[in-house]
Fold this sequence. Notes:
Blueprint: H1 9-16, E1 26-28, E2 36-41, E3 49-51, E4 56-62, E5 65-69, E6 78-82, E7 87-90, E8 96-99, E9 106-111, E10 120-125, E11 132-138, H2 143-155
Antiparallel strand pairs: 1-2, 2-9, 3-10, 4-7, 4-9, 5-6, 5-8, 10-11
Amino acid sequence: MTFGRPFNFEAWIDEHRDLLKPPVGNVQVFDDAGLIVMVVGGPNQRTDFHDDPTEEFFYQLKGNMVLRVMEEEGRPPVDVRIDEGDVFLLPPHVRHSPQRPEPGSIGLVVEIPRPEGLQEAFEWYCTECHRLVHRVELQVRSIVDDLPPAFDRFLGGDRTCPHCGAVHPGKQWPESMIPTTNPSTDPSTAPRA
Length: 193
C-alpha cells in the first residue's frame, strides 16, 4: 500500500496563492483521491446555483464568504454567512451559489466524487421573480473542461425569464443583490446560529 505524507497546509496554500485569484480561484489539493478537496480563493461571484447530489463541506480558513441558498423557488435567495474559522455541511440537493466577495479570502471545500452516471445540475433563477430560468444537468468529470461550455450556452443564449419576462443579468448580480459579508449593509444575511 502506498500513501502520501503529511505536509504543511499553510505552506501549500502559499505555493498556490497565485491560482487562488480570478480567473482560476480554485485548486484541487489531491489528485486521484477518494474525496475532492479544493482550496478556493476570493474574490469571486457567480449567479448560478449548484444542485449537488452529495453533501459539501465548507471550512473558511481566511476571510468570510456567503453561501447564497435558494430555499424556495419564487422567493429571494437567503445568504448564509460562513465566517473565518467556521465550518458548514451542506446537505445534498440544496441549491447554492458560493459568493466570496473578500479579496484574499480562502476556503476549503470537500466534496464526494460523483459515481459514473450520477448527474449534478446548475440553475439560474430570475433576479426579479426568483423563478427558474434555466437548468443544465451533466456528469461533471472535470470542472475545467465540463463547466465552461455549459455556462457559455446559458450566458450566450436567451436568458429571458419564462415567468415574468425579465432578462437574467448573466455573470453579475444586479446592484441590489451583490453579495457582501458585512452584516450591517446586508439585511438579507441570515442570522448566525
